[in-house]
Amino acid sequence: MPSVASLEAPEDRMRFFIDGRWATPHGARSHQALEAATGDVLARGALADEQDVDAAVLAARNALDHGVWGRTTAPERAAVMRRMADALEKRAESTAVLVSRENGMPIGLSHMLNGGAPAGLLRMYADLVENLELEEIRPSQAGSTIVRREPVGVVGAITPWNFPQALAMFKIAPALAAGCTVVLKPSPETALDSYVFADAALEAGLPDGVLNIVLGDRDAGAALVSHPLVDKIAFTGSTEAGRAIGAECGRLIRRCTLELGGKSAAVFLDDGVLDTFLAGLDGACFLNNSQTCTTQARILVARSRYDEVVDALAQYTSDMVLGNPLDPSVTCGPMASRNQLDRVLGYIDMARNSDARLVSGGGRPEGLEQGWFVQPTVFADVDNNDRLAREEVFGPVMAVIPFNDDEDAIRIANDSDYGLGGSVWSADEDRALAVARRVRTGTIGLNYYTLDLGSPFGGMKDSGIGRELGPEGLNAYLEYKSVYASDKYLSA
Ligand code: NAD
Asked: Which residue's CA is the nearest one to ligand 1's atom 30?
């Protein structure tokens, strides 16, 4: 691991990326990004106000309506997207380190998600749009109808801090492929890394105004949501913010995709294989220090295996290695911010004062007083009606709940306001699949949980509306148009 002292300080990002240039902010507000593992200042990022957001949206509108982008073919867009992927890959190492410092993401994961994944997504959507029929001619009673798929327009993309690069690219890549233009408003906690997209866009020759980036707080987000020249909002974040954004989009009849919170269940059936479960816990429950929307923080266990699984979970979490996320041996980094740490500790205190039984962790780790560290924590005998089982903690705090049989497990798994992730653990994959089919959730794994970028991802119930990733993620940035024509195009 590079010693933290030997790392270069990241550069301040005191300008926005608007219309292909570095723009001076209208106001004077800025955010101080802190290193999650130490609490030290990393760098500053300027915060946008309503006028900065307006300038970014005008640039995006102009690029779409009057610039070259609105007239590009899919292969032309694919070519520039591939160049941007190459430019991102060149910066992958430094971006991975930067994100780990910003939000505490373990460096191995950060390499995958902040270097490889955004470039991979650009290439995946470049391939998809090149092979998509954007115009289809159908015979009609009056002659023919040309069914076109056109870009939805100017997209406002609003992202959280937990997977800042990947979640932004879930939106940017399909939007660019479809021919949309984008204004990205990232989260202040990860103030610095999103401008790597601007550096890559400049190097790739993405036309001016196609991608604009303005860091800002929730007021800037709200200004983007209600801006009259925006056609679609693509949001990832909390269910609370999603409700406000969805309500505003409804009022404005504005298209929106909402990827929100979760309280998913990992269901360990009575024939589950313990070693498989323990090997899969990182992906299902502890990914990114459990600051992951798909964290399966309700662990439902068959009564006949209950004590064995609770003991194994206690051992697993006690063995997790806490520390600076830049150290590759660390399996649990810090929380992303002081606020986030306080929130997680608050849930731990609440559960300590309930009937739940603390079996491991339960507070801050000794020797890691700097930074926002919390012990991976397991509470057993949690009631599914307890707040710990119903609300999203967004940290490494697991609630273990016993069940009687498969029916009971399905009932408890579905007894949640959310429906985003999940997993079923059984020696019999067909049996696990039968359970998985009945859980109301957008994604669910059989004996593992790993996102598939080629398949739709999103939530049921309060976990959101719409899907990202896969070919379905491209549909979300295209609108149908039917052109009624003569029959002359049928034979062409
Ligand atoms: P958050 O909702 O507080 O903020 C997310 C983004 O929205 C930030 O950029 C913020 O500035 C902006 N924002 C907040 N309120 C807004 C408003 N009223 N109008 C416009 N913009 C607004 O969430 P967070 O704390 O940054 O992220 C954690 C949350 O994100 C968790 O609930 C987590 O489950 C969720 N999340 C969901 C997914 C998913 O794909 N479903 C993925 C990652 C994170």
From this structure: 237
How far is residue 244 CA from its own chain's centroid?
19
Domains by residue range for the chain, with CATH: 4-260+465-481 (3.40.605.10), 265-453 (3.40.309.10)
Cβ-contact 466, 257 below 8 angstroms: yes
Residue 24: other Cβ atoms inside 10 A = 11
Q: For the whole model, what pTM was predicted?
A: 0.97
Can you give the length of the chain in residues?
A: 492
Q: What is the pLDDT of residues 124-170, one digit of tens each?
A: 999 999 999 999 999 999 999 999 999 999 999 999 999 999 999 99
Question: Who lines ligand 1 at CB under 6 A?
Answer: 158-163, 167, 185, 187, 217-218, 221-222, 225, 236-238, 241, 244-245, 259-262, 293, 392, 394, 420, 459, 464
Percentages helix, strand, coil for the chain (3-state, rounded to 5) are 40, 20, 35
- Is residue 259 annotated as part of the catalytic site, yes or no? yes
Own/partner long-range contacts of 38-41 (Cβ < 8 Å, ≥24 apart):
38/4, 38/324, 38/370, 38/371, 39/338, 39/370, 39/371, 39/372
